[in-house]
Design goal:
By secondary structure, this protein is an alpha+beta fold. It has one domain. The protein has a five-stranded mixed beta sheet with strand order 3-1-2-4-5. The radius of gyration is 23 Å and the shape is elongated.
Length: about 220
């Protein structure tokens, strides 16, 4: 019987060279691959939150959660308001957000400090910052695909709402993290879609309910 032919030294060296080349290619692109995977998972989480927004609106005559102030349990912020419509509060933590408090055991439903990875539209352009009675209905949004509901705040922020006109330069400049995943961040829109926008493609006017509003 003829014995099975084994690898020659040259063939073995070729295989090692190919494996080495593939390893180098994977390592060189590891950061990009990891960032892409993380943002894909975050977009999936945001879509689930989007379903929560729509379910809440369905139960409240198309009204979205209001912007409320105060730090007491009597003023439920948006994470707690949507809780009944989510299967798992872990969707409140963006994958790759190292500063997120949920990963460190914080209560994602706290009304005192925002422990989620997201910040909700504060509807400043229609007066919600000074008047808690202001409400937004899905039916009043002419182009819901161009209105952001959720963005991601910078590390250390515990803001619940993106109050565009608050602060030295406005929350859209001082609070928002436009580069959570490399060159951009993830956003949930009022039509339920979640999209990754590069910093270059981002426009703070996407937060406006009233598109005619002039940002100072």
């Amino acid at each position: 019987m003829r014995r099975a032919r084994g690898f020659t030294l040259i063939e073995l060296l070729i295989v090692i060279a190919i494996v080495g080349t593939l390893a180098v290619m994977i390592m060189a692109n590891w950061g990009t691959m990891k960032s892409y995977t993380q943002r894909a998972a975050t977009l999936s989480n945001m879509r689930q939150i989007g379903v929560g927004f729509y379910s809440y609106a369905s139960d409240h005559d198309t009204r979205l959660p209001r912007r409320v102030s105060g730090d007491t349990n009597t003023s439920d912020k948006w994470p707690r308001l949507l809780n009944d419509y989510l299967e798992d509060t872990r969707v409140y933590a963006a994958v790759g957000d190292r500063s997120n408090h949920i990963f460190r055991g914080a209560d994602p439903l706290s009304n005192q400090r925002n422990h989620t990875s997201y910040i909700m539209n504060g509807y400043n352009d229609i007066g919600a910052f000074t008047n808690e009675a202001v409400e937004v209905r899905l039916t009043q949004l002419e182009k819901p695909a161009s209105v952001i509901l959720l963005g991601t705040p910078k590390s250390g922020s515990t803001h619940f709402y993106m109050d565009m006109l608050e602060g030295q330069h406005g929350n859209h400049a001082d609070v928002l993290n436009l580069e959570l995943y490399g060159k951009g961040s993830c956003y949930l829109f009022a039509d339920g879609s979640a999209r990754f926008l590069t910093k270059a493609a981002y426009d703070h006017r996407l937060w406006l309910v009233n598109k005619d509003f002039v940002v100072p």
